[in-house]
Specification:
Blueprint lengths: L1 E4 L3 E4 L6 E2 L12 E6 L6 E5 L6 E5 L2 H4 L8 H7 L11 E8 L9 E2 L5 E4 L4 E4 L11 E2 L7 H13 L1
Antiparallel strand pairs: 1-2, 3-4, 4-5, 5-6, 6-7, 7-8, 7-9, 8-11, 9-10
């Protein structure tokens, strides 16, 4: 399958690698098909929209920022993802968060921990879930060296096994 992008040119992807957001993302309800790939040499990844060639997000695992990200999902959200819970590696659930650049000072990027993306790598379904009463912010400061790399390694290994 070919995906046209304004940032990366034409990408050839396996249709099974596509990530489907049944409910879209906040403010983008009609855009449901994305692909996720690593940014070379770093902790970031790209979430490229297959439905809009101009739309791509920089995302990262919250473990690099806050260690364990305590995501809470309702039974209905788990059902949309096609998983029973987020505790087992067999579910293949991987959590990404949107990394946004603060326009007033691009040297101080922030990460949206309040409304993370939850991607079930086994089912290739995803949701953006607001974590009310979590204490997280949409503009959490991104500091080099923060978080827990071992947690990220385990999560990445589980998603690759799915």
């Amino acid at each position: 399958m070919k995906v046209e992008t304004s940032r990366f040119g034409t990408l050839e992807i396996d249709p099974e690698d596509r990530i489907f957001f049944p409910e879209g993302m906040m403010g983008l309800p009609g855009l449901q098909n994305f692909i996720l790939f690593d940014h070379p040499g770093g902790i970031f990844q790209w979430l490229q929209c297959c439905d809009d060639p101009d739309l791509a997000f920089v995302v990262m695992d919250p473990a690099f920022v806050v260690g364990e990200h305590n995501l809470r999902l309702t039974d209905g959200e788990l059902e949309v993802l096609g998983v029973s819970d987020l505790s087992g590696e067999d579910n293949g659930a991987e959590i990404c968060v949107l990394a946004t650049v603060n326009v007033s000072d691009p040297r101080n990027p922030t990460v949206n921990l309040l409304a993370p993306l939850c991607i079930a790598m086994r089912t290739r379904k995803a949701l953006q879930v607001v974590q009310h009463h979590s204490g997280y912010s949409t503009r959490h400061e991104l500091r080099p060296g923060g978080g827990n790399r071992e947690s990220r390694r385990k999560r990445r290994a589980a998603s690759q096994a799915a």
